[in-house]
């Protein structure tokens, strides 16, 4: 989704801004732009990749010691150069913005009444004109930005520069992340720490309602009440080379192959020290886990599917009623609050607006127990939660989530064990058995990765198709959902997942020789049922592609292709079976020549509704 970078320094900031935008590319965007103050506002915008903007910047020899830059993911107005940011008001104010201004129509009408002329279809342009309007009256950019922020409704992070004040840059946030980077005699603004990591590790995470003024010598922050505040300075641990591709062709491929390490790092705490709730989830968690009467898992996209798997563990192992809901559905629903329920948000980025808003809603409803499972330290969702478990997947750049999913599952199983133990439902033998099972998981993932050549052969055939059906039952149904999601996201093949038992209630009508049917069928309690569902497909001429394990005793026959993982992973089998469906999607997309890491229309961190 949109990205912001800003810099105020005594050296040319154009390379800092361009490099920062490149580090934000993974979020997904469709146009890029930059504006610096240098004898006027000098602006370059391009539809397409940052590199196209960079070429134009070079051709124009753009330079400046203060500037802002942006990658845009279109919401209001099409993908055109005139809608790309920065937006400028009267050649005097330039603005970049992430998020959505909900009252932009009302503000647009007001500003037109004041004589402002609009050049784009964006909601952002009202911000530029509002700042201009207030700056004209006061000559104070900080004050003008505060007054502007007070007029805006919706979610935003903004960065502003004014031609008449080349020694100040301002920013404001409400609902969208914005960080300040502190340098020596220079300061920075960005939507994401990764944009700044080449320049500084000293960062301030702004809070909702904050407005900031950056000068070369320092920064000032006021909160939503207008009071000057001191925000804590954090030292970011993000690795500067986390975004290196290494020997891989795509980030998604790299991230799929990193899973044995990512899962083993995530499990390190529980494997080394046992199921110690306080050590794993934070002080006070054990007594909360003892007292809760249910769990509600809230998430979006792939993280939601991790929640669907975890429901089986929560109810089957910890014996706690568990429901799973998409954040954007929960937040608008008239649900029944329960102060004894544990609210668990699952998010790779920790920024997804739908999940964040669902968490806020739960808190407003008076639900005190909140826990976040997240991959990005200090991001918004864990900061708003009482307890936190950080997955240790490392930076995930590919838009289609892979290692975040399997590490989330590892974390959710750990949480299940901690709740079970706090409630006296996990004795010492069961605990050491569970830990022994966990110890096997990274090795089983590696075995699944070794199936890649066989999966590549399947991908050749899938690449020719326009539709695919994924089936699974019970704890493997969410893996079928994840397989269909991965395939449609990156190969653009229409794919749907169903619980196999539902086949005869509708999707069977779609089955013929041209519809490949992928079945997730390792040995579990429902295997015989799945086998019957597979017969229903074969009887209609459908071709089956079965992911099984050694214990499920499948043999290949006409129209039935089988790939077996070499080990049965018991309750943890969904973690292992996520691997082959990721590889199938990746290799199919590769054959179709799509942009695997940046699929069209999608974004990595979805910070708008
Ligand atoms: C976007 C991404 C998905 C991700 C979802 C939830 O749609 O493209 O890969 O699963 O957001 O993101 P989160 O960061 O909250 O896990």
Number of strands: 25
Our count of helices gives 19
Shape: globular
The main sheet orders its strands as 3-2-4-1-10-9-11-15
Uncertain runs are: none
Helix content bin: 25-40%
Q: Report how far the terminal alpha carbons are from each other.
A: 12 Å
Mean pLDDT: 94
What proportion of the residues form beta strands (DSSP E)? 15-25%
**Alpha-beta classification:** alpha/beta
Ligands in the structure?
6-O-phosphono-alpha-D-glucopyranose
Radius of gyration: 25 Å
Q: Main sheet, how many strands, which sense, barrel?
A: 8 strands, antiparallel
Question: Could you characterize the architecture of this molecule?
Answer:
The structure is a single chain. With 609 residues, the protein is an alpha/beta fold. The chain is 37% helix and 23% strand. It contains 19 helices and 25 strands. Strands 3-2-4-1-10-9-11-15 form an eight-stranded antiparallel sheet, with helices on one face. Strands 5-6-7-8-12-13-14 form a seven-stranded antiparallel sheet. Strands 17-16-18-19-20 form a five-stranded parallel sheet, with helices on both faces. Helix 12 links the parallel strand 18 and strand 19. 6-O-phosphono-alpha-D-glucopyranose binds next to helix 10.
């Amino acid at each position: 989704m949109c990205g912001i970078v800003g810099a105020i320094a005594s050296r040319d900031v154009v390379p800092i801004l361009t490099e920062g935008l490149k580090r934000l590319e993974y979020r997904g965007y469709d146009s890029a732009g930059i504006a610096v103050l240098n004898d006027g506002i000098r602006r370059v915008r391009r539809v397409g990749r940052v590199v196209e903007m960079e070429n134009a910047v070079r051709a124009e020899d753009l330079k400046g010691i203060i500037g802002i830059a942006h990658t845009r993911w279109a919401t209001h107005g099409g993908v055109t150069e005139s809608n790309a940011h920065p937006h400028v008001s009267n050649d005097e104010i330039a603005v970049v913005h992430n998020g959505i201004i909900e009252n932009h129509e009302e503000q647009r009408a007001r500003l037109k009444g004041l004589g402002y002329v609009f050049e784009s279809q964006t909601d952002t342009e009202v911000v530029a004109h509002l700042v201009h309007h207030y700056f004209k009256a006061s000559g104070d950019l900080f004050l003008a930005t505060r007054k502007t922020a007070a007029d805006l409704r919706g979610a935003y992070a903004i960065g502003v520069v004014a031609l008449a004040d080349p020694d100040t840059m301002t920013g404001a946030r409400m609902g969208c992340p914005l960080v300040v980077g502190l340098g020596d005699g220079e300061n920075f603004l960005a939507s994401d720490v990764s944009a700044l990591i080449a320049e500084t590790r000293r960062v301030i995470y702004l809070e909702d309602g904050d407005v900031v003024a950056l000068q070369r010598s320092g920064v000032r922050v006021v909160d939503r009440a207008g009071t000057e505040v001191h925000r804590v300075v954090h030292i970011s641990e993000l690795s500067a080379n986390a975004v290196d591709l290494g020997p891989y062709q795509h980030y998604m491929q790299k991230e799929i192959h990193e899973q044995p390490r990512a899962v083993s790092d995530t499990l390190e705490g529980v494997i080394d020290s046992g199921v110690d709730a306080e050590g794993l989830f934070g002080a006070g968690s054990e007594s909360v886990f003892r007292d809760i009467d249910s769990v509600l898992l809230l998430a979006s996209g792939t993280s939601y599917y991790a929640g669907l798997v975890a429901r089986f563990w929560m109810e089957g192992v910890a014996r706690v009623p568990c429901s799973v809901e998409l954040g954007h559905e929960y937040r608008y629903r008239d649900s029944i609050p329960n102060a004894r329920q544990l609210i668990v948000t699952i998010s790779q980025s920790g920024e997804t607006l739908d999940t964040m808003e669902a968490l806020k809603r739960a808190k407003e409803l008076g639900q005190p127990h909140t826990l976040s499972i997240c991959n990005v330290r200090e991001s918004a969702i864990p900061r708003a939660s009482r307890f936190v478990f950080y997955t240790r997947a490392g930076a995930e750049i590919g838009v289609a989530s892979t290692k975040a999913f399997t590490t989330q599952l590892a974390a959710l199983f750990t949480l299940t064990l901690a709740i079970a133990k706090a409630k006296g439902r996990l004795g010492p033998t069961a605990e050491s058995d569970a830990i022994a099972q966990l110890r096997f998981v990274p090795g089983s993932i590696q075995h699944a990765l070794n199936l890649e050549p066989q999966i590549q052969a399947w991908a050749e055939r899938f690449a020719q198709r326009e539709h695919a059906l994924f089936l699974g039952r019970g704890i493997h149904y969410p893996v079928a959902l994840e397989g269909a999601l991965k395939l449609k996201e990156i190969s653009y093949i229409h794919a749907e997942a169903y619980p196999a038992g539902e086949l005869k209630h509708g999707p069977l009508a779609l089955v013929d020789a041209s519809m490949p049917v992928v079945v997730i069928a390792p040995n579990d309690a429902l295997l015989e049922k799945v086998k019957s569902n597979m017969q229903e497909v074969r009887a209609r001429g459908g071709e089956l592609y079965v992911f099984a394990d050694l214990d499920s005793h499948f043999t290949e026959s006409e129209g039935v292709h089988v790939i077996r993982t070499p080990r049965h992973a018991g309750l943890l089998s969904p973690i292992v079976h996520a691997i082959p469906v990721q590889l199938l999607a990746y290799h199919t997309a590769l054959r179709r020549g799509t942009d695997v890491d940046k699929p069209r229309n999608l974004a990595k961190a979805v910070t708008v509704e």
